[in-house]
């Protein structure tokens, strides 16, 4: 069972129950934030609207997050929204791109919404290139929100028959967005560019989106600082050399003055 999917995708399943279908909704936002040194965090924010909370009043108490904490996730207690809903926030820090890829892989299982997500970095500290590859896709409809073990046990996704009878669109009950903030300036992306970030809405109809994104980070301050250090070092060497030459000239002058005059 994948960590996040095993615990929190149930909110999305509850959202699709058709006695309640037209008003219940779960929104999930996944944020990837990468710092210039390769560290950062993956944040997942899951919000169930007031209709779900009203129909499942024990939802906050029923959530179990021990396995998430063991996997390195920081989990906040459920917080009520201003509109009467419920929000849970999970954060997974990472130290390098390899750990970022592990964190992204834990967000869901093989059916989505994040597939083959890979963060890579090349170049120097002061001039680096970043790449984010992968795709966004939800396959299997409602079955994407239940792990394989649960699906094998019950034989079908919960409330699937209700959803089919009501002719509902999965996207009416579940919304997922993915946002990435990479170091530097975004060179190209398939997402919607914002100030220092790119975002995508995950399609819920089985279609897929390639998230190919690249950025270039030039640390101007560090570059100037390094050049400045070289210049200062050069000036210091020149100053020392000039001082030594001056001392030698002064020494020679004193020696000439101290010599007795030559008699013919």
How would you describe this structure in keywords?
264 residues; 5-stranded antiparallel β-sheet; 2 domains; 9 helices; 8-stranded mixed β-sheet; transmembrane helix; transmembrane; membrane; 13 strands; elongated; single chain; alpha+beta
Assign an overall shape: elongated
The residue fraction in helices comes out at: 25-40%
Largest sheet: 8 strands, mixed
Oligomer: single chain
Order of helices and strands: HEEHHHEEEHEEHHHEEEEEEH
Strand content: 25-35%
Report, as a whole number of angstroms, the end-to-end distance: 109 Å
What is the tally of helical segments? 9
Please state the CA-atom Rg, rounded to the nearest Å. 30 Å
Q: What is the residue-mean pLDDT, rounded to a whole number?
A: 76
Helix/strand-derived category reads alpha+beta
Number of strands: 13
* Number of spatially distinct domains: 2
Q: Which residue ranges are poorly predicted, with pLDDT under 50 across at least 5 consecutive positions?
A: 5-21, 149-159
Keywords: Membrane, Transmembrane, Transmembrane helix
Overview of the structural elements:
By secondary structure, the protein is an alpha+beta fold. It has 2 domains: 3-218, no CATH class; 219-264. Helix content is 36%, strand content 30%. It is built from 9 helices and 13 strands. The strands form 2 sheets. Strands 1, 2, 3, 4, 5, 8, 10 and 11 form an 8-stranded mixed beta sheet that branches. Strands 6, 7, 9, 12 and 13 form a 5-stranded antiparallel beta sheet that branches. The model is unreliable at 5-21 and 149-159 (pLDDT under 50).
Quick rundown:
Helices cover 36% and strands 30% of the residues.
């Amino acid at each position: 069972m994948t960590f996040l999917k095993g615990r929190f995708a149930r909110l999305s399943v509850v959202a699709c129950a058709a006695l309640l279908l037209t008003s219940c909704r779960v929104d999930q936002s996944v944020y990837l934030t990468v710092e210039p040194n390769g560290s950062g965090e993956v944040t997942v924010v899951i919000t169930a609207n007031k209709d779900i909370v009203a129909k499942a009043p024990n939802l906050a108490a029923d959530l179990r997050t021990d396995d998430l904490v063991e996997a390195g996730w920081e989990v906040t207690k459920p917080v009520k929204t201003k509109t009467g809903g419920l929000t849970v926030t999970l954060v997974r820090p990472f130290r390098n791109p390899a750990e970022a890829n592990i964190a992204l892989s834990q967000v869901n299982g093989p059916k989505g919404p994040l597939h083959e997500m890979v963060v890579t970095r090349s170049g120097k500290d002061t001039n680096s290139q970043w790449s984010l590859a992968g795709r966004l896709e939800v396959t299997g409809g409602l079955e994407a929100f239940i792990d394989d073990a649960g699906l094998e046990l019950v034989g079908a996704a919960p409330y699937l028959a209700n959803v089919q009878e009501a002719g509902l669109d999965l996207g009416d009950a579940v919304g997922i967005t993915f946002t990435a903030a990479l170091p530097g300036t975004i060179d190209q992306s398939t997402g919607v560019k914002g100030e220092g970030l790119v975002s995508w809405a995950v399609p819920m109809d089985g279609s897929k989106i390639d998230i190919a994104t690249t950025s270039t980070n030039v640390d101007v301050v560090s570059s100037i600082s390094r050049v400045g250090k070289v210049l200062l070092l050069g000036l210091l060497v020149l100053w020392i050399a000039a001082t030594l030459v001056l001392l030698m000239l002064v020494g020679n002058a004193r020696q000439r003055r101290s010599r007795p005059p030559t008699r013919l």
